[in-house]
């Protein structure tokens, strides 16, 4: 009797802590999402499980997948995954009331990992974005991966091929390692891959490393509420930079702190390092460093504005308004590269002047600091080495009545002349 009880107890312990591998079922020509959703809702695969998209199979993810709260779960993408190639089918899923906010929506849980495979011919997630870009179709576009409110885990070795729009967002998550991912949103026809943002960092204790992004919007964007963000050892091509913001739209209180962005190559990007907050915002961005950034063929290597204002909204509030997002302890250190200063029109420019045009700029500026009086503290650019592609002297833009401390170069609209803090 005693022995039997012990035996039952022991087998329960063994089975409750066993690791399970669940291979996602696939049916040729059919949507594979419902089968996975059914298994997820049954509950048995939401703890201590690998959910495996197996190598050798191309899965049809014809409708979005909403993962429930999960603990100790790994979603392994070893096969290929394909979105519908039909634009209206995707639009209908995004417009549906059941749309979970992203094509792959994770929300809640602990120790959740989304991973791919090192095999270069498998593990691709193909969204067929080219057709959307070619048609300039911007209605009901899906976001790729929402990785929200998860504590602990990783996103690694994922390969995205031609996303329709935004890729990864980590809002409200903490202690996540995002490494060795590839996002390839390069258009093969000359159409522009609008809003194909790489990584949107919201949350706490997030490390990004060894990522390669080719896209048409921010490579990295750090948003409201982000804290302790580290980005390193990466390559960004074609997009809109290593960005913080935009913060404080419509008077919103936005806070970002402790961000280190380093060891990254920016190639043919519109911006290198970029900060943007809206006029009239509240909150603060503090302790933000960009360092060891190599840039090649970049029109705006370093660009900061505390005065972002949409022209369509009429006259901006006066510069003496009490409300503005504060910026404190910003360091740009160890930038080297070439400034694209020839006749230039980036693919996302559809207006005249272009949305990124800076009144008064010559195109030869390595740094543009558009700061707001009394709200910018300890902003320094140091060890900056740049040449223009035309060979013209390198310039800066900076309004000395907005900041009086040493910012590392002479604060004026003129030639780049390093000062004491700049060496
Ligand atoms: C999951 O595994 C952990 C050990 O890693 C164990 O403590 C826990 O009981 C398991 N949970 C379930 C539901 O199997
Ligand atoms: C999964 O694990 C979590 C946290 O350990 C626990 O609260 C939950 O009950 C578990 N779920 C199942 C189905 O065992
Ligand atoms: C976290 O999940 C991974 C799989 O992604 C697993 O190997 C590991 O054991 C889990 N950690 C804990 C503490 O259960
Ligand atoms: C997986 O998808 C990628 C991207 O669409 C493709 O290049 C590759 O050939 C596919 N792999 C196989 C084995 O079909
Ligand atoms: C972030 O990391 C720090 C240092 O390891 C830790 O003290 C803190 O609890 C973490 N924050 C969250 C939200 O996990
Ligand atoms: C401006 O800032 C003050 C002081 O922080 C705050 O009370 C007020 O609500 C803000 N106004 C707007 C329009 O954001
Ligand atoms: C500033 O941020 C960096 C990088 O996240 C961090 O290591 C450092 O501790 C922060 N400094 C302060 C004073 O919080
Ligand atoms: C410089 O800043 C002051 C104070 O905000 C402002 O009044 C002035 O218009 C600015 N000058 C330029 C050229 O932007």
Automatic annotation (TrEMBL):
The active site is at 240. It holds the Pfam family Glyco_hydro_28. Its EC number is 3.2.1.67. It is found in: Secreted. Keywords: Cell wall biogenesis/degradation, Disulfide bond, Glycoprotein, Glycosidase, Hydrolase, Repeat, Secreted, Signal. It catalyses: [(1->4)-alpha-D-galacturonosyl](n) + H2O = alpha-D-galacturonate + [(1->4)-alpha-D-galacturonosyl](n-1). It is an enzyme of class 3 (hydrolase). GO terms for biological process: carbohydrate metabolic process; cell wall organization. Belongs to the glycosyl hydrolase 28 family. PANTHER family: EXOPOLYGALACTURONASE C-RELATED (PTHR31736:SF11), PTHR31736. Specific in hydrolyzing the terminal glycosidic bond of polygalacturonic acid and oligogalacturonates. This is galacturonan 1,4-alpha-galacturonidase.
